[in-house]
């Protein structure tokens, strides 16, 4: 009788275990990561404005027109930030303008939205940083250089920069 | 023992199916920044015809009006609808003998038009400064400027070829 009860309880154990796993009841170390995803919020698109054909123009991340976004993560968690950067902007009739990124074209500041106090980094290379403990926020500004050729068609050009943020698990 | 094995198998299966999906869904986020640029056509100034007085006798005065076919001509190619400014950054008041130092005084007249037709152009009252007011906003992107002049070599003027360089500089006003 006792043995039969035990066998009946064990029958439901797999289901109980699966429910526990799905509900997040296991320690985070078992899941690998227990935090919610770091959240990205673009606050400014990158706007070069008007540039003369034949003249290269660098948009510094400190100046108006630089792209900007926020990363909202779990305090103390390490976040990996990576970009997929375009090589050119596309304009009228498929005409293109080269766009390039340099080793000081991005700025990151933890906690405070103050680019002047931030550290510069190369957006071509993924970086990691620790999400601040007090508010979990980090702010990023992005610049670049465009080089329209002298004979490039006049008009509006655009391109897309993809940002990816993920926890490293550290 | 058999039940325990089954339990372990189910648990492992559950973990292998659930954990990666959960981790992938929770661990990353992505967003996009749009980069935009407006390319403005570069300004191009081209001298299309020299101002050539030809052979002038000493003591005589020769004048070439800006509407004369012999007048000097320049063309500005710009972005349509963009206001531009231009000025003669070099407009010498003498021609200098080639290989010498003797000079002949020269005075100028000038005119402008948005089409390549001096006959319907407008005279620039002060050729030393063409000015944005004279050029306006070229809707077609082209501006044509003609320059004439008057020379009066003296009767004792040293014979030879006399020349000078006239330079026009144009820029967008940004307004």
Question: Describe it for me?
Answer:
The complex is a heterodimer of chains A (170) and B (175). Chain A is of the alpha+beta class and 170 residues long. Chain A contains 2 helices and 13 strands. Chain A has helices at 2-23, 28-31; strands at 39-44, 46-52, 57-59, 67-72, 78-84, 88-90, 96-100, 106-110, 119-121, 127-130, 137-142, 144-146, 155-167. A 5-stranded antiparallel beta sheet of chain A has the order 1-4-11-8-9, with no helix packed on it. Chain A has a 4-stranded antiparallel beta sheet with strand order 3-12-7-6, with no helix packed on it. The radius of gyration of chain A is 24 Å and the shape is elongated. The N and C termini of chain A lie far apart (50 Å). With 175 residues, chain B is of the alpha+beta class. Helix content of chain B is 17%, strand content 41%. Chain B is built from 2 helices and 11 strands, in the order αββββββββαβββ. Chain B has helices spanning 2-27, 132-135, and strands at 28-40, 44-49, 62-64, 72-77, 84-90, 94-97, 103-113, 122-124, 142-151, 162-163, 167-172. In chain B, the strands form 2 sheets. In chain B, strands 2, 3, 4, 6, 7, 8, 9 and 10 form an 8-stranded antiparallel beta sheet that branches. Chain B has a two-stranded antiparallel ribbon with strand order 5-11. In chain B, strand 6 (94-97) and strand 7 (103-113) form a beta hairpin. The longest helix of chain B is centred in the N-terminal third of the chain and has 26 residues, at 2-27. Chains A and B meet through helix 1, strand 1, strand 2 and strand 13 of A and helix 1 and strand 1 of B. Strand 13 (155-167) of chain A pairs antiparallel with strand 1 of chain B.
